[in-house]
Amino acid sequence: MQFALPPRRSPQPLPLARPRMSSYRRKQLKSGAVFAFAVFLILFIHHLYASPFYTSPFLSAAASTSTSGVVIVTLLDHQLFSDAYLKKIIANREHYANYHGYTNFFASVSDYDEAVGDAPQSWAVVPAVRHAMATHPHAAYFFYLAPHALIMDPTKSLKSHLLGKGRLEELMMRDVPIVPPDSIIKTFSHQTEEDVDLIITQDKEDLNPWSFVLKSGDFARFFLDIWFDPLYRNYNFAKAETHGLDHIMQWHPTVLARTAVVPQRLLASFSSGSPGASLDGTYEDGDFVVQFRGCDVDNSRDCAREVEPYYKLWEKKVQGD
């Protein structure tokens, strides 16, 4: 059995006690230490602000004091779409924003190559929305709309269409499968509009991440962080960010509890040439948005050609305002 040994004695004699320091000398040393720390702190902050990876929240706030309550986020792919096509998408967004006093946030897919890494570029939707939130910290809502979509009824504000008092209460799809047609996880049956921070829709097979409204706040940052987790980006989902979103909604009730699913035609009607529309999800005149689902990934389709008749219809509506 081993026992604790007594402290060893040092073979060297103990040093002689030093004389006590004067109070004046102690004050000098204390003042010097404070000054040195202040200099170090100033140099550190200067280095931090000089870093190309740092974005000051104070600068972001100052730059966006005129931001409206709603920011429309559009992610543009200059390699996938022609300049002529993107000009039409931008014109569509600018007219809608000007009509209702909203703010546009246009970003390029290539801006987020480093963040997305080896994952499909479609994941860029998440850092793009997060970037918009950082740039416009005073906005109340962020409306993401993919570039293969047009706002067809510019007279509908988000407030009258979705956000007005009592409006969402009527529209929310309760106790329905999150992932159609037969997911065992369903939307909450007793959810109220006060619980909601994310408004999204679904097609015949999945949730639709190409058109959604996200309320600014802690939940929005939490949700985007989870969605962009490297585990999901590197999992090789067949439909990348779409299946990542499907998974989160089914297995993270914290997110589902703050999400309202609304009928497809309220946020993302599909064009007649788009596959996978829900039972009542194909575009009809008067719908808010039309999407050309898959036109950017199907080699047999051409987004510019499919958009053209809808764009001309939109132009007539705009000219008639």
Overview of the molecule:
By secondary structure, the chain is an alpha/beta fold. About 30% of the residues are buried. The protein has a 6-stranded mixed sheet, sandwiched between helices. The chain has a 3-stranded mixed sheet with strand order 4-9-8. The protein contains 13 helices and 9 strands. The N terminus is likely disordered. Helix 3 runs parallel beside helix 13 and helix 5 packs antiparallel against helix 8. It has a domain of about 210 residues: Spore Coat Polysaccharide Biosynthesis Protein SpsA, Chain A, CATH 3.90.550.
Mean pLDDT: 84
* Estimated share of beta-strand residues: 5-15%
SSE string, helix = H, strand = E? Answer: HHEHEHHEEHHEEHHHHEHEEH
Described by the principal axes of the CA atoms, the overall outline is: globular
- As laid out across the biggest beta sheet, the strand order is 2-1-3-6-5-7
The largest β sheet comes out as:
6 strands, mixed
CATH superfamily of the domain at 58-263: Spore Coat Polysaccharide Biosynthesis Protein SpsA, Chain A
User: Strand pairing plus helix content: what structural class?
Assistant: alpha/beta
Total beta-strand segments: 9
The number of helical runs is 13
The separation of the N and C termini measures 95 Å
Query: Are there runs of 5+ residues with pLDDT below 50, and where?
Result: 1-21, 41-66
Please bin the fraction of helical residues.
Answer: 40-55%
Quaternary organisation: single chain
Name of the CATH architecture of the domain at 58-263: Alpha-Beta Complex
CATH topology term of the domain at 58-263 = Spore Coat Polysaccharide Biosynthesis Protein SpsA, Chain A
Roughly how many Å is the radius of gyration? 28 Å
- CATH class value of the domain at 58-263: Alpha Beta
